[in-house]
Amino acid sequence: MAKNSPTSQVRYGRRRFLNVAAAGAASAALPWIVPSSVFGAKAPSNRIQVACIGTGNQGSGILKRFLENDDVQVVAVCDVNTASHGYRDDDQFLGREPARKAVDAHYGEKTGTAAYQGCRAYVDFREVLACGDVEAVTIVVPDHWHAIMTIRAAEAGKDIYCEKPLSLTIGQGRAMVEAVGKHKRILQTGSMERSNPLNRYVCQLVRDGKIGEVKRVTTNVGYNNKVGPGPGWKPMPVPAGFDYDRWLGPAPDAPYHKDRCLYRFRFNYDYSGGQVTNYGAHSNDLAQWGLGMDGSGPVEIEYVGATWLPEGSLFNTALTTEFRCRYENGVELLCKTNERPVGVRFEGTEGMVETTAYPWKARSEPATLIASQFPSGGIRLDATSAHVRNFLDCVRSRQEPVAAVEIGHRSASLCHLGNVAIRLGRNVRWDPKQECFPGDEEANAMLTSPLRAPWNG
Ligand SMILES: NC(=O)c1ccc[n+]([C@@H]2O[C@H](COP(=O)([O-])OP(=O)(O)OC[C@H]3O[C@@H](n4cnc5c(N)ncnc54)[C@H](O)[C@@H]3O)[C@@H](O)[C@H]2O)c1
Question: Which domains does the chain show, CATH number per domain?
Fold first, then answer.
């Protein structure tokens, strides 16, 4: 039996996953009609109309990056939390209403319209997807929502900026790839370290053979940065303004506790994959990029070790982890908990290079930076800003962004594979073409997770 896994794991096929339930109750605010004349020549109709779903810790930052682009109009925000403290830090005050106010204040200042109130606000993302004016959405919600929202958004014809890790399970990730491809949508995975010029440089050095033949890669994931209550924890009343049932969505029913939800969802396998998927979606993503393995993955995953909180703790993801992967070409990847959370070290026959330490010990001539897929307007040191710009460029050009859906899926898969090995406490073999664990029923059962009604279709 998988360690800390839900007791009722069931398999569901891709088709079944895609067939999730239809829209339900409505709870949106009425839209404000703003005459395009207030915007002058750059009327909203000439801009990419964006709606931001999830306006918490990361969502509020992503929203700002969209606002800083003049060819974007943020027309709506959506969150199941109206407003509250208690996101990443106790005093971080975020949610739907602060986001709406930020958007209105931004456009009010830009247009000199102090009373600007053009940003619509929603609780139910399905109402956002039903808006004909919305061309692209950001999905910056806990991981257990990524697949359903992405698939629905693709079906509704929206382009998608979806946060990392792209999926909660490998099965969900594959369904996302299929939906985005089928509906010809642009999807940027929020692995913005790919848009950090220094990381690009390191990966290009490796791909250009500057460290010789790559033999080993070490990737880091961080220690838990939050502490949850131990065994015997008591449920709490749901705060006013927080739609907890919608927050849970497809996840199993569970009593409310503040440490289950905002930001801290990372430490519970029902909603995420612990620091292996949280940080690993950056470090393992860079490893895959440097190795040229974007469309593939390892063939063996060796369990090295993991430590766990006492049974019955609210957080149930591993405290520390270590697993070793082997690719078909013999390259070895060691992923482990470390002080430097997003670090990656590539070791080759002629040198080594790290993303967190310069200069590299390799041949002397510099690599050419990966020229394609840079954001328009030149290199930006703010990786998130560059990543968002790359997405917007691709929405216009219909080219693949730097962290397109298959890339995001494969990078998340690498993290999920590590989690399968540590949760089972043993080695597993993986077929990256068929995306299954050959002859391993126990591991194959972990390719998917159950969906709560009405999301199980
Ligand atoms: N790229 C990065 O470096 C980076 C950094 C932080 C977080 N993230 C990712 O962003 C995502 C969100 O993380 P976070 O730290 O912002 O979490 P958070 O809890 O601070 O914010 C998530 C928000 O989503 C809202 N939400 C939940 N269910 C919803 C639903 N059904 N409809 C609308 N809103 C809903 C919550 O109320 C909350 O406000 C995660 O996938 C995380 O991995 C990425």
Answer: 14-191+393-397 (3.40.50.720), 194-370+406-447 (3.30.360.10)
